[in-house]
Amino acid sequence: MMGDATSSVNSSRSTSPDAHIANDSWYCGSVFDIGGSLLKDTMREELNKKFLLTKSNGSKQRTIPASILHDEHGLRMWAEINRMPDYYQTRDEIALLEQNSKDLARHLKGAYTLIDLGCGDVRKVQPLLDTLDAMQVPVQYFALDLSKAVLVDCMRKLRPRYRHVQCFGLWGTFDDCLKWAKNVHSPKCYMSLGSMFGNDHFKEAVGRLKAWTDIMRPQDLMLLGLDGTQDRDAIWRSYHDEQGLFHNFIRNGMVHSNAVLGHEWFKPQDWDISGEFQDFPLMHRFVIQARRDVRCEPLGLSFRRGYKIVCYEGFKYEPAMMQKQFAAAGLKNLKQWKSPSGRIYQYLACRASLAAETLQ
Ligand SMILES: C[S@@+](CC[C@H](N)C(=O)[O-])C[C@H]1O[C@@H](n2cnc3c(N)ncnc32)[C@H](O)[C@@H]1O
């Protein structure tokens, strides 16, 4: 279906993305399948591995991977959640991008490829793309996420908006994108907006960042947006809205795990959803607690009444802690900005060893 780029999905597992860009048959608004069509298998593997016993504060804790929460329905719910009056994270980071995008755009002159890792509904990135387009900075913008249908909608929204910014979708996981990005030779700016990379227990956060650091070349950059607020009331209100939208989002993710596992082990009436804080560092997470004994046959797991599964851990790291993460992951923080509200930070980083080599 040439000409109606947004309605098609292209399989690009074996070809170089640079070739797509150069090749006339790949057109603005295309969505490339870089592993998305295998998502069910990937998610099942992740659930096997990650439904998981992680170590938290010295104790073992089962968690649900974030990818399970973001099926198409979850992503549509997320688009509603991020518009709620108390959900300051999206509103504040948009305000931050409106404020800093001219400054940021100056770092992106030089035919950059922007890779938006977990683009969501692409609402947040628009102030940056608008600025780049107005400044006539030619960039290729690749939006990565887990739902093909949502990516197609995003491309339909973005494509007519820009003349100098070429927009594409990438359907797949972060791991798929790591493999894909290795073959992109133009300078890249990896973007993790909305507290994703860097938002984990310290060791795990550093490990995930390091995987990207390892593939970064001299001109490559990473833009990270992270919530650093320590205001517990604001945090609580943002996750526990009166309508219960956020709780429904978590519940939907658990129901999605039934589809991934091919077995209805999760019945909403058997579980309570609540939230809790941990300190040092401040973190909020959702707790899904069994109301009765529950068996998850496909994974061979039994949960006694009262058992707690956690998910959606939101660490609120302040800049000093992020500097420690960057140092441990081999990144050098080039610049940082704070949202007008003072709650959200963005950091622009490059690979530390390469920064040192460039300076010599
Ligand atoms: C908190 S939302 C942030 C969305 C957007 N960046 C923003 O700031 O508004 C997290 C996004 O990451 C995506 N995501 C989560 N796990 C992922 C994975 N393993 N691979 C690719 N995308 C993932 C979700 O689908 C979702 O769109």
From TrEMBL:
Record carries keyword Translocase: no
GO BP: methylation
One Pfam family here: Methyltransf_33
Coiled coil: none
Domain (Histidine-specific methyltransferase SAM-dependent): residue spans on this chain: 59-349
Residues of the signal peptide: none
Record key words, sorted: Methyltransferase, Transferase
GO MF assignments: methyltransferase activity
Record has Methyltransferase as a keyword: yes
Gene3D superfamilies, sorted: Vaccinia Virus protein VP39
Protein name: Histidine-specific methyltransferase SAM-dependent domain-containing protein
Origin organism lineage: Eukaryota, Fungi, Dikarya, Ascomycota, Pezizomycotina
